[in-house]
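Researcher: Here's the sequence for the chain we discussed earlier.
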Amino acid sequence: MSVVDITFPGNISQVDSAAALRAVPSNSIYDTAIYLVVDLGFFGFDAGSTADDNGVSVLRPNDLTPLQAGRWLISGGSVFDTGLRADLASTDLGKGIDLIGRARKRLSTDQIYYVRTDGSDSNIGTTNTSGGAFLTIQKAIDTVYNTLDFNGHVVTIQVADGTYTAPLSIHGLATGATANQPFRLLGNEATPASVVISVTGSNALTMENGAYLLIAGVTMQTTIDGAGWSVASNSMLEHRNCRFGNVATDVIISQHHASVRALGPTTIAGNAVTFLHATKRSIIDFASQTLTYVSNPTFSTYLFGLNDASVNLDSATIVGTATGRILVHDGAILNISSLTGNPLGGTAYEVEDGGYIANPDLMTARTLYVNPAGNDANDGFANTATRAFATIQAAINTLAKMPYDPKGFAAGAGWVIKLADGTYGETVKLYNVPYFDVTLRGNTVTPGNVIISGTSDGITSIGTRTNWNLDSFRINAAAGLGLRVEQNSAVSFQNIVWGVCTSGHIQTLSGGVVNVTGSYAIAAAAPFHIIARLDSVIDIPAVTVTITGTPAFSGAFALVQQASAVRINGATFTGAATGTRYSIATNGVIDTNGGGASYLPGGSAGATATGGQYA
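Model: Thanks. This is the structure I predict for it:
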């Protein structure tokens, strides 16, 4: 409501309370006198009518009971009928009175209102006693918005320990709220769990239309329906030392150009549909603050859901883990620069329709860690149980779904997935990673300490455009191939130990390419060491292949068919093997650069057929 200036006939006096006004002797009240009662408003009297007590048209000095605080009493023939006029450009005499006659107290110092579970909304709220404090927080908010002109000062609502069940609603910016953090709602900052706002069927806090609030030291929770904090329409909520229990929908939703900013730690101790929900060019900001998950809370839709908005975790610290999806889409930005802790929530980021994840630190480090003692709900940014992934596949999935700006990297830059010593009982599927080559690296000194033991194949790359490099680990395959490379994929390896693989160590198919880039070892038998079919290629240059245990190749050391090529140029084989040296058919080629018929490991001569060639 608009504020206007009012000029009055007669006299204006100020008293501090309704009780003080009651104490004014009737014979001292001037005709057409006006009294300003602090925190209540302006009241007028007709001294000649004080004997009347109809409670509406006039007011006796000793009877304020029927009065609506902050409202004018206007009746025919009463004081306000003579000489009262609104003057929009007049003096400061009546400043703070709005068009419907509600008076505002212009603050000359900061103001505190108190709310207690043993208070009463009939109190005036300015003393921290059961007889002075309000009962509900909303009563305090309404008093602030309806009766005060902040005049550049700070107004605080101090909430005592206890549980409050009424929803809170703030609309618009309070009159005269121009100070830094002008409106504050404070609970117990040392123990936020002691002040609980628990609402059924509604948002615990709703802010709209440019409202501002600093909230601290409270726990928010909802049941049946409703968000913890709903901040919209250019409003701004700042918070510190707050805690959330179970929430029926979104813990925090910021939308329509709104802003939610953490100034201190936040604790999430309950489940919800979504934790952070930012839409329509709004912001949720936890930069440089600590976010703690208690007992792995679960978010059934999203941990973070961003749609044309921003969530800023720059230099934040995340303690504990949570479960839920992270979706960044429609031009939204998630900033995880210099983040300490795990933002993931058990699944990889999902980025679509122009969404972007900003992480300059990862652009520098470009390493993810996998450790059998880790957890796939971790983020993979350090080789510790609380940060590393437990499975290789989790690290690959993270890279495959996380887009980065290629302009942020030097030419030739790539990623490393570092494997700690141990056994990984999984079939590893290599996927596309935008813009970069990726190295899967184990123990470069003792590669046998890191074992990929596939339940079917060991490692597969099918239709993958990323160049994957395998380095320094052992590969076993319980029911398949050690390495399967198909459909124009390209994989290189060095320092690999080939273990027991029931179908063969290495296979290329349908345009697949395998390049050997360093020495390696064969430590167990297989039907075939290398298989090349359907226009595929295997290239083994001048490296050393160390064979231990005299493995037997029941099919052949090398099987090449269907216009595929195996080039073995200058490699040195140490140790012995048994079985057929090679089998070449249907225009397949093995080129040993003149190595001779007995060059490849085995105990019996190789064979060619149907256009197969050995050179």
